[in-house]
Amino acid sequence: MEKIVLLGKTPEELKEIAVAAGLPQYAGKQIARWLYVRRARSIDEMTDLSKAGRESLKERAEVGVIEPESFVTSTDGTRKYLFKVRCRITESEWEESFIEAVMIPDGERKTLCVSSEAGCKMGCRFCMTGRQGFHGYLSARDILSQILSIEESADLTNVVFMGMGEPLDNYEEVKRALDVMTEPWGLAWSPKRVTVSTIGVIPTLKRFLDESRCHLAVSLHDPFPEERASLMPVEKAYPLKDILALIRRYDFTGQRRVSFEYTMFSGLNDSLRHADELARLLRGLECRVNLIRFHKIPDFDYYTSSPDAMEAFRERLERRGVTATIRASRGEDIFAACGLLAGQHGK
User: Which residue among 14, 68, 86, 213 has its CA within the 20 to 30 Å range from the CA of 281?
Assistant: First the structure.
């Protein structure tokens, strides 16, 4: 009999598991505390449960934290972790695959970039993850393991869902992981420490905006629909104009922030004409634009914009009233930078 995985479960779900193992109902809260506050790796560590109860629970369940297979460290201190996971393709089909998470140190900050899927369905032409296709949905267990199992786990200050996969294509499991991260019974993080990135899957984007207080980042990359569609096929299904119309219905003047990710390609989307149109689209919206240097991948003809072009683009946005920053590139030498994750051994 396959054992129940405790990691990712709510206190109410853990109560049912505890009762089935002959433990009292309140043991559900005790188990949640061991999982998310004390971060136990085994049921044997849960010493405020009776010994007989622990033995009964072990027959049925396991904690389920997945340890990384390996890691590599960049010259700039960025560290990329490789995990082997068993992910869901359909309701009845599962497959083993590899995913990656990236820890980025920056002074006192340690940000972890986590994956939500193995591969990706969205097919963005400039992204290595998108190029490899879709290999399966990660469970909340797989997502939380990336946070709890790495060497820097206790020191993490922020988590960004910007690794492999489209988080809002796997919304139920991502939301379950977000709840564990932010609820008082879980890791009890402020939602301000967590950012979810998306290309704009409108049905689940609305659910995320209604059900979570975590920050939002939208992959934009080109303000003109035809050009954006040539880079991101999803533009045809979920047009940028509809994404922005939805976002404008929500308040981003308080604790929750929205930002827009804009990867820059020389001669493609880095002209002042593009900056002006981007500023027009975002006018009146409290937001930030993050300008990202493109990292060259095979079979894509474009190169990154020059530093001068990126700075001119940033200044143009600022003059048009849009806050913009040029994001520093991290971990390129270990294939850990934006758009380079592919879940491969030896990189």
Answer: 213
